[in-house]
Write a structure and sequence with these properties.
about 350 residues, alpha/beta, QueA-like, Thrombin, subunit H, 8 helices, globular
């Protein structure tokens, strides 16, 4: 299966670089299992979801993970904290004119914070902060909004690039679970009133979600590693939903990767699980848990486009995307959404 199989033309003006005024004001393209589709508003999920269905949401919170500073020699540097291991040790991406070597010292926050490079881990730098990392990020960091916004983080992103249900104790992501950005408190309350259930899983989204696939044959691509947790409560609610014949609705690709990782680790059936996942879902993958998926529109040739193609089919997805382009749907993190039905196999 070739990378070029997942390409499509996207006009730049369809990239949503700012959110709409209201979270739930987006459009929704409903892609059925047979490949047909209908245009909706996002709030129409109140009619499209049934009582007894279960929404699985990712409750991670986005860190202000981007730091700007300088080297000891005065050169500009940017540090993106990817993963925190204890109060002062992290794996990071570092942008600088020359790649820093072990022992290099970087300074953040008007030189108040020293960051020492201690080594490498795969494509990341291992660094030690002179102060607790989360305190440093809170004081000096910026939200790491996606690169395709082509702008710096602004005040509006502080609220809108976080979900309304994020767990402050799970402050560890460098990108938002963007399908969940469409939900506001009012819509969640109406879904609960209808009898649509919800449960939470956690997957801390890494910057690797924005990295391009660099292999021509997609089966040679190696996914980045992300930490996730599916609790006993979440697993039990999914089991009960399946037993009653209701639908498990993943809200976003990160929730999808979390529950499918847990199922793979537990022998093909959902169970409680915590660990690092490098699961790569592309056409041919046998879904164990997810029946329906709410997701945004994704980049050409991205692993996320491959994931949604696995749930439906490449042909169905690209046809629906062509419709979305022609009808000026808004793309990517602050864009419109799709409801995708799993294609029977």
């Amino acid at each position: 299966m070739q990378l070029s199989d997942f390409n499509f033309d996207l006009p730049d003006e369809l990239i949503a670089r700012y959110p709409l005024e209201a979270r739930s004001a987006s459009r929704l393209l409903h892609l059925n299992a047979d490949g047909s589709y209908q245009d909706h508003h996002f709030t129409d999920i109140l009619d499209l979801f049934e009582a007894g269905d279960l929404m699985v949401l990712n409750d991670t919170k986005v860190m202000k993970a981007r730091l700007k500073g300088k080297r000891a020699t005065g050169g500009a540097v940017e540090v993106l904290v990817e993963r925190i291991f204890d109060q002062t040790i992290a794996h990071c991406h570092i942008k600088a004119s020359n790649s820093p070597k072990a022992g290099a010292e970087l300074f953040m926050g008007s030189d108040e914070v020293k960051v020492t490079v201690t080594g490498r881990h795969e494509n990341l730098f291992v660094v030690e902060f002179s102060q607790p990392i989360l305190q440093v990020l809170d004081a000096y960091g910026q939200l790491p909004i996606p690169p395709y916004f082509n702008r710096e983080a602004e005040a509006i992103d502080t609220e809108r690039y976080q979900t309304v249900f994020n767990d402050p104790t799970k402050l560890a992501s460098v990108a938002a679970p963007t399908a969940s950005l469409h939900f506001d408190e009012d819509l969640l309350a109406k879904l609960a009133q209808k009898g649509v259930n919800k449960t939470f899983v956690t997957l801390h989204v890494g910057a690797g979600t924005f990295l391009p696939v660099r292999t021509t044959d997609i089966e040679n691509h190696i996914m980045h590693s992300e930490w996730c947790e599916v609790s006993e409560t979440a697993a039990q609610m999914i089991q009960e939903t399946q037993a009653h014949g209701n639908k498990v609705i993943a809200i976003g690709t990160t929730a999808t990767r979390a529950v499918e990782s847990a199922a793979q680790a537990c022998g093909g059936k959902i169970g409680a699980w915590t660990g690092d996942t490098q699961i790569f879902i592309y056409p041919g993958y046998p879904f164990c848990v997810v029946d329906r998926l709410i997701t945004n529109f994704h980049l050409p040739e991205s692993t996320l486009l491959m994931l949604v193609s696995a749930l439906s089919s490449k042909e169905n997805i690209l046809k629906a995307y062509q419709h979305a382009v022609e009808n000026k749907y808004r793309f990517f993190s602050y864009g419109d959404a799709m409801l995708i039905e799993k294609t029977s196999v």
